[in-house]
Structures are given as C-alpha cells and as structure tokens.
Amino acid sequence: MSDFVQTLITALxxxxxxxxxxxxxxxxxGILKFINFAHSDIVVLGAWSSYxxxxxxxxxxxxxxxxxxxxxxxxxxxxxxxxxxxxxGVVGFAIERLAYRRLRRAPRLNVLITAIGVSLLxxxxxxxxxxxxxxxxxxxxxxxxxxxxxxxxxxxESARRVVIGLIDVVIFSLATTLMLMMQYLVFHTxxxxxxxxxxxxxxxxxxxxxxxxxxxxxxxxxxxxxxAAAGFLYVMKYPSMNQPxxxxxVLLGLKAFVAAVIGGIGNVRGAVLGGFVIAFxxxxxxxxxxxxxxxxxxxxxLIVILLVKPxxxxxxxxxxxx
Amino acid sequence: xxxxxxxxxxxxxxxxxxGSASFSDRDSGFVxxxxxxxxxxxxxxxxxxxxxFLLPGMVGLYYSRIVTDIGxxxxxxxxxxxxxxxxxxxxxxxxxxxxLGGYMAAFTSYYGSMCLxxxxxxxxxxxxxxxxxxxxxxxxxxLLAAGAGYVVGLPSLRLRGxxxxxxxxxxxxxxRVILQQTGKVIESAEALKTGGLSQMIPPPVGGALGFGGxxxxxxxxxxxxxxxxxxxxAYRLKRSSFGRGMISVREDEIAAQAMGVxxxxxxxxxxxIAAFFAGIAGGLFAHERGVILSPKDAGFQRSFDYVIMxxxxxxxxxxxxxxxxxLLTALPEFxxxxxxxxxxxxxxxxxxxxxxxxxxxxxxxxxxxxxxxxRTTLPPTASLMHSSTMPSQESKR
Lengths: 322, 397
Prior knowledge:
The complex is a heterodimer. Chain A is mainly α. Chain A is built from 11 helices and 4 strands, in the order ααααβββααααβααα.
C-alpha cells in the first residue's frame, strides 16, 4: 500500500511535468500541423539556463552552490524560474521567426526535417564549452527539502512511511496553476479565440482579420515559456543533470509528445490528460512489472492507442476530403 | 531473377546503345537480356574485387576503413530512401532495423562459428568457409529486420507522415531498450555445450555493454558486392511498375488509390525491402574491425544521420543519396579537430537546405540527368526546360 501511494505521488508530479511540456507540442501542432522536435530542447534550455543562473546568483548572496545544505531564500527560485521562462520565450520566438515562418507553405515533411535540424542545432550549441558544456552537472538546491506530510502504513516496527516532499507539492501546484491559466487563456479570452480560429483554418482566420503571424508567434512563446517552467521543475526534482545533447532529454520530450498524441493532438485538455496517463503507465509499470522497460510501456501504449483510436483519447476524427 | 528480362530492358537501354534490337526476336533476346541483366552485378563485383585488393595497398588501412564505412552508409541511406524518398513515408527508426539485423547476424556468426569450429577465430581466407558463414549470417539478419519492417510497416497503413515518424522512432527506442536487457556473451564452446538451451533466454548478446568478440569478417569486397546488389535492386525498383506505384503513393495517396495502386501493399513492402537491406548493412557493421555493436546504435541519433543523408541527397534520387552518404561519412574524418562543431554544421546544413533547396542536392533526378542526353528524341531546349521546371513543381506541393 505504501508503495502504491509513493508511486502515485511520483506519478502525479512527473505527470504534471509531462503535461506542461505536452501543452507546447499540442499547441504548435494544433496551429501549424507539425511536430516541433525542437520543443524538447527548449525544455533543456530552461533546465540548463536555470542551472547557470543559480550557480551565478548563489555566490553573490554568499552561499555555496555546491553544498546541498545551504538553501537560499524563496525568491531565488522564483527569479531563476522567471528568467529561464523569459529566455526560452525569446528563443522560441526567434526559432519561429527565423526558421519555421518561411516554411509556412512548404510540404509538412520539410517543416518536420527543419524541426529536426533546429533540434540538433540547439542540442549541439548547448554542448559547446562556452555555452553549457558537455559534462553532467548537479543542480543546487533552491528549495528546502521539507517533508510536508508523512503517512505511516502498518503498525510498529514494520510501519512504512510515505513522504510527501515540498518539491512534489510545488511541482504539482505550480503546474496545475499554469495549466488552469492556459485553459482560461485558450477558452475565455479573445487571444484564445484567435488561436483556435487559426488552428481551425489558417486561411479563413486571416480573412477574418486575425493577425495569423502574431498569433503563431504568441503560441510559440507561450509553449516555450511552459517548457522552461517544466525544465526548471524537472531539475528541481532530479538535480543530476545530463549534458544538453543527452538522450535522456530527447526521451523526456518524446514522452511528452506521446502524451500529446495519446490525449488527441491539438487538444489542450487532451495534452494534460495524456501527460498524466503516460506518467501513470510509466511509473506503475516501472514499479510493478520491471523498471528496465519503462520506455517500452510508453511507446507500446502509443502504438496501441494510435491503432485503436488514431485521433487520440479526446481528439475528434478527421475525415479526409477528396 | 524471374523479373530479369523485364528489368533488363530498362538497363540495356541505358548501358547498351543497341539494346532495342533485342525486341525483334524473342528467343535470342531472352538470353541476351538475361546476360545484360546480370552485367551490372558482374561490373560491381569486379569493382569490389579491385577495391578489395588494390585500395588498402594504395591508401593504407585507415582510409580503407573510411571507404568501408562509406559503403555501409550508402547501403543504409539508399535503403532508407526507398521508404522516405520513393514511397514518401517518414521513417526515423532506420538504425533500429540496422542494429536488430546486426545483432542477429553477429549472433548467427558468433555462435555458428562456435558450433562449427569450436572457437570464434576467422576461418578460411578470401571467399573461405568463414566468409560464407558471414554472408549467410548477414542474410539471416536481413530477414529478421525485414520481419520487423513488416510489423512497423503495418501502422503506416493507418497513420500519416508525422505520426508514423513517431512510431518508427519509438520502434528504434524499443529495440534499444530490449537489447540492453539481453544476457552476457557466452565466451567458450564448452560453456555453450554444457549450458543447454536455457542460456539462450534472454539471448546472450552482451546487454548494455555491447556484443564483443564477433569475428571481424567485413572487408571491402563484401561491402561493395552487397552495395552493388542494393543499388541495382533500388534502381530497378525505381524504374519498375512497382516502384512507380510507390512514387505515386508519395505524390498523392488518394489519386494513387483511384488509379488502382494497392497503397497498403506498397507501403508495407517498402518498409520490408528497406529493413532487409538495413539488416544486411547492420550485419556488415557488426563484423567490421574496430566496431563493438551496442544497443546505443539503435537510438535515434544514428537514425537521424541517415535521414539527413536522404534529405541532403534528394528524396528519391539514388545517386544523390549516394553522394550525400559518401560526403557526410567522409567529411567528419577530415574534420576531427572540429568534432564539437560537426553536428552544428550538420544542423545548419539541414535547415539551410530546407529553406533554400528543399528538394535536396539532386532533387528527384539522378546524377546523369544533370547534363543533356545525346540520344534523346526531344530537342535540347525541351529537355532543358523539363529539368528546370521539375523542381518548382515539386516544391509547390
């Protein structure tokens, strides 16, 4: 029972991260109809820029960034996260402006290949020695390792405790807040109407006076900002960071994309649902079957869902007209 | 070879100026066509032998190894081009097929060698018994990969472009993870005999550390012989009615279906054929000197390398893809000091190509389409116009 609850807590935290990243994939797919392969690298950028910033800020406050016992005040974490979000927003805007916008009318395969190119570019620029370097690092602790709650299962000596840490609660609540804000933005604001209109039919949206280019740019910035938040939260949860081009990051992005597809790509609520589904399958599969195959469960689930319901759990089927 | 007379006509019209004479009398024409159909294989094998015996003496072992690598890369890129370039599907899991085939081939030759001769040394010289075991293992690897290609090809019936890309990517990752869970390599023939069948589950192919100790049979002769077979089959496929069916699927699935092309069959077979050659290339790679096959090889990074080659070469152009595969394999060897920047240059090249020349180096043309043909019925101006309008038509889609 204690194992079950512990896995549940981990799955909720990881699931909200997947959901945050998946939102970026699903919005771009909804509007431009291509997989933004570079999105996972924006997550990496968010993670690594928050690391770089943290190791700069902490000595300035008189703290040792490599000593896990020193915990800075709360505002440091907020500043680091906001700075990473701004940086990623700018980079996301630049990518769309310089690479994807010229390919708006190109075949989808070309855009996909360009996205792979942008992804490779970001990864390998990040690996350069004067950017982030090609060696793994340890993220300094920005939040205290408080145990907010501790639930005991069993009696006496054999009791096993389940610990809910501050970081899990922060991840879950912050991610949920961001997702609710997204929900409000997409379904209750004028900008959200414009986004949905562009997603529905770009040409008609332009005829209705919607500034398509500006909406697309905004979508990229929004997705990148969410990705930056996810990257920051991810390294807060797992402080051992791999180098920017490491396969772990690409897999993180891929799983988030799988989440978007499973939920029904282009569907904002579906992305959130998919994120949690993926996290649950992965975490419970890893715990109860075998942790060696955790990536296999996710991709197997993807293939099954695509074969059974190609438009995803919440997606509506698209009929092709001749 | 049942189709040889048919495809040979295409070939003779390219290589033999008097090829049209064989239409007049069918009896002698059949023999002549069959012989002419075998011509490219003979030429290719002759060239492979020349390379094998002369090149190491001329440029040394280091550069011969680069040439071997180029040969394997060309087999991979040309086979991937059957799926990505000709049929218009988007597979980014090609290294998965390669590694699967490579593991199967290495498994067959390593344990086969142990059963036959009691050790895993190289047996026999040039074209000796050991090399034939190696060729059979490569084909076994190719067949397993082809089977996997069938399984991966099935979702392509229901999924369009980018979804399929994710499935193939997922396939490569699944292969990588599964190979990591395999058992330790059995070191000696005695252990193999005493251990019984139970040690074959999971297959003893080295796990995450890689499959070491595979006999190193790969040489220039076999790489370029298999390369010849791949190229001839790819070229004849492209010129056959079946290949034109594939191209029609790439251009417009609905129109192709309306014209009676069985698009399901075309797509799945494209995957099967491409995976078969990728598996064989994996076998060659597994037996190459200085290579230890490891699960990492199935990852998407290697798959991306081959995708870049097909994109750079021009989707559907066999010679263009050969050119790109050769360039992209040889270039890093000469840019060793700039290793850090190699992938940045790749990435910029890829983006630049997509923005400026999306059809690739040669587009849908072969290299000999670049200069005007002499024996053409069209006036020179017409053929020039033809070649200049094609890319724009393609980019419009």
